[in-house]
Write a structure and sequence with these properties.
By secondary structure, the chain is an alpha/beta fold. The chain is 30% helix and 28% strand. The structure holds shikimate-3-phosphate. The site of shikimate-3-phosphate has 11 residues, from helix 6.
């Protein structure tokens, strides 16, 4: 499937985007490990989260799906999972596999965790090495999947992380539920804290002291009753479109504004864009707000340090905004972009060059000197949802028509992406 996009009129209206991906994965996993029935509303019905859902069912957990976004998970407690009779296939879901390897390391039965060709290319040593230090018995394929996990005794210990990664932190805290003593994770930067918030809400013994999180095992998990808010990482594509499509003026309703996720709002504000928040509230322990988006002329900025961590998934689309910003937009400290679904620095630079962009790439980031005219082109989504969506946003301001090939992957995180853009008035559609 391809996406065809042409520049058009200003974006107007009021839209919602699907539920948060990070929270959807976590609510399934923690709901399965809880004692009793968890109700989940606002679940993200997408490729990545359905992959985790499928694996959870293969572990003997009953999950009823009432409609696309409403689920009931019949939790079977920390020690109730059953040995799966096939390898668990997480397809493209990096979060699903990295969180679940922590859970599987603590089980009394063996399991195999695997995924798509894309997932097979992603580094797993960042989770398997600290798990092994806890005593986990994991065989891997030179640091990649498939991961064979065998029963082991897990020791509670202190982990000093070298990368700011919520997937690694969460994996170790989940393994810590099965350890013989407290597990402490010290993180070098403010990676998203959804696991900590949810574990606390479920009654786990968790304490947080600055960048140090300690989980003391022994308490059963209570069931969950959650309304998952809209994903700011999906809203980000619309925020970016609002920044660069002239005269745009629209609202995105009830988006998660957890401060570990709102780096994109700060980066866009630095670039001169005003996004007003209204109807600020809290749902199931997470802050939410409606975002009022108005086009402004944007200027370059320098993004580095902790801000990178708090907007780690937003750089592909930030690159597109940078093409329209006056002056230099420089990103550093962002090595992690090279080990996402794709090497997002190289892949985005390569595709945007096809649209006429001049960009400098660095090992840990890039520099774009704007404003530059983009030209419509045939570009490739590389089976990376955020790349495919970012290129679609680029097509909204390019001259002529842009075709994004290999774009089906947008459904990994944002089903309805094309339709939401259409609602705002964009000239975009699926083509065969
Ligand atoms: C996620 C953490 C981030 C992010 C990913 C989702 C999560 O990965 O890129 O899309 O839900 O924990 P890292 O923890 O590897 O930075």
């Amino acid at each position: 499937m391809k996406i065809r996009v042409r520049p058009g009129k200003s974006l107007r209206g009021s839209v919602t985007v699907p539920g948060d991906k990070s929270l959807s994965h976590r609510s399934l996993i923690l709901g399965a490990l809880a004692e009793g029935t968890s109700d989940i509303r606002g679940f993200l019905p997408a490729g990545d989260t359905f992959a985790t859902l499928h694996c959870i069912r293969q572990l003997g957990v009953q999950v009823d799906q009432h409609d696309k976004t409403t689920l009931t998970v019949h939790g079977i407690g920390l020690h109730g999972l059953k040995q799966p009779d096939v390898p668990l296939n997480f397809v493209n879901a990096g979060t699903g596999i990295r969180l679940m390897i922590g859970v599987m390391s603590g089980q009394q039965f063996p399991s195999v965790l695997d995924g798509s060709e894309q997932l097979k290319r992603r580094p797993m040593g960042r989770v398997t090495n600290p798990l092994r230090a806890m005593g986990a018995n994991i065989e891997d394929n030179a640091g990649r999947t498939p991961l064979h996990v065998y029963p082991a005794h897990l020791k509670g210990m202190r982990h000093q992380l070298t990368v700011a990664s919520a997937q690694v932190k969460s994996c170790l805290l989940l393994a810590g539920l099965y350890a013989d003593g407290p597990t402490t994770v010290i993180e070098p930067g403010p990676a998203r804290d959804h696991t900590e918030r949810m574990l606390k809400a479920l009654g786990a013994d968790l304490s947080i002291d600055g960048n140090k999180v300690t989980l003391t095992p022994g308490k059963p998990l209570q069931p969950l009753d959650i309304t998952i808010p809209a994903d700011i990482s999906s809203a980000a594509f619309l925020l970016a479109a609002g920044a660069i499509v002239p005269d745009s003026d629209f609202k995105i309703i009830n988006v998660n504004t957890n401060p570990t996720r709102t780096g994109i709002l700060e980066a866009l504000a630095e670039m001169g864009m005003r996004i007003d928040l209204e109807d600020e509230a809290e749902t199931s322990g997470e802050p939410i707000a409606t975002m009022n988006v108005q086009a402004q002329s944007v200027r370059g900025t320098h993004i580095n340090g902790d801000l990178v961590v708090r907007m780690i998934d937003e750089f592909p689309v930030l690159m597109v905004v940078a093409t329209q910003a006056k002056g230099d937009t420089r990103v550093s400290d962002a090595h992690e972009l090279r080990v996402k679904e794709t090497d997002r620095i190289a892949v985005m630079a390569g595709e945007l060059r096809k649209m006429g962009l001049t960009i400098e790439e660095y090992e840990d980031g890039f520099c774009i000197s704007g404003k530059q005219q983009l030209n419509g082109a045939i570009v490739d989504g590389h089976d990376d949802h955020r790349v495919a969506m970012s290129l679609t946003i680029a097509g909204l301001i390019a001259e002529g028509e842009t075709i994004i090939e290999d774009a089906r992957c947008v459904n990994d995180s944002f089903p309805g992406f094309v339709e939401v853009l259409q609602t705002l008035g964009a000239d975009v559609s699926w083509v065969n």
